[in-house]
């Protein structure tokens, strides 16, 4: 939220839309414990750059990445059930 400048409500809506679906829950996948939170957050917010890279949240791995070259994925529609917090 702080690095990208998103509200908490939008950040939660993006995570809900990407990882809070019934398919993930029914598979009982415990994905969030295997990577840093930044890894999941950047994957939800940023599309890949020209070299097909998405930031990982690691200062070492991301050192040569120009964040301004990454397209921003659209947020879920405001009237969708993914928005569980008010802005």
Topology:
Blueprint: H1 8-19, H2 22-27, H3 37-45
Helix pairs in contact: 1-3
Keywords:
87 residues, single chain, 0% strand, mainly alpha
Structure summary:
This protein is mostly helical and 87 residues long.
Global mean pLDDT: 83
Q: Which percent band covers the strand fraction?
A: under 5%
Q: Shape, please?
A: globular
Q: Treating each run of at least 4 consecutive H or I residues as one helix, how many helices?
A: 3
Could you tell me how far the N terminus lies from the C terminus, measured between alpha carbons in angstroms? Answer: 13 Å
Please identify the structural class as seen in this structure: mainly alpha
Low-confidence stretches: none
| Main β-sheet description | none
Explain what this protein looks like in three dimensions.
The chain is mainly alpha-helical and 87 residues long. The protein has three helices and no strands. The protein has helices at 8-19, 22-27, 37-45. Helix 1 (8-19) packs across helix 3 (37-45). The longest helix has 12 residues, at 8-19. It is globular and about 35 Å long. It starts with 7 loop residues before the first helix and ends in a 42-residue tail after the last helix. 8% of the residues are buried. The mean pLDDT is 83.
